């Protein structure tokens, strides 16, 4: 009798786990539709999905990766350092190669008015650290990565799938920047994901995203658009 009850309990748990995996997969599909349709700002739609998902699961935002790092100051310093290094690699190698291969440039015309305008720079920096860094990281590196991993399962395959899917959606969400912009944004997303996994906290990717945008905006303010170093 005891063995039967134990077996029934195990079957119930297995069924529940499979159900939540299917639900997670459907959530990822909805997030992808939000990005592809691009009718409303995709990040806002995904954040709403994340809120509903957490409420349905009765879980806190911590389950999306918002964990406190044991050495936050050191983590921030290291992440900023990695972000600066990644920016140098982009400007010195990746961006010029992409431009020469495609004959195109990243479309950053939406930031044209930032050059020489300190007030606009400060506004965009504030938005960059809130709506962009915190909002987009919660949506893509937090919610999408977590749900893809939930759907695919643990292990290396789950990690690769979660990084890949979230990076592709993040890149597609920036189609206004052209082919080069989408590619660079995809690569940024992979780096942000790697930092999140390396430091085991979503705050690492938030810092990286904010630092990356800050470097770009401040550079644009002083010298205008920069299309690589050669």
Can you walk me through this structure?
The protein is globular, with a radius of gyration of 20 Å. The chain has helices at 2-37, 42-57, 72-102, 118-152, 156-172, 178-199, 202-223. 33% of the residues are buried. The mean pLDDT is 92. The protein is an all-alpha fold and 230 residues long.
Structural class given helices, strands, pairing?
Answer: mainly alpha
Order of helices and strands: HHHHHHH
Percent range for β-strand residues: under 5%
Instruction: Count every helix, treating DSSP H or I runs of 4 or more residues as helices.
Output: 7
Helix content: over 70%
Whole-number mean pLDDT: 92
> Could you list the spans in which at least 5 consecutive residues all have pLDDT below 50?
none
**What best-fitting shape do the alpha-carbon axes yield?**
globular
> How many strand elements?
0
Rg over CA atoms, rounded to whole Å, is: 20 Å
Summarize this structure as a short list of keywords or feature phrases.
single chain; 230 residues; mainly alpha; 7 helices; 78% helix; 0% strand; globular
Provide a quick synopsis of the model.
Helices cover about 80% and strands about 0% of the residues. The protein contains 7 helices and no strands.
Produce the secondary structure layout.
Layout: H1 2-37, H2 42-57, H3 72-102, H4 118-152, H5 156-172, H6 178-199, H7 202-223
Helix pairs in contact: 1-2, 1-4, 2-4, 3-6, 3-7, 4-5, 4-7, 5-6, 6-7
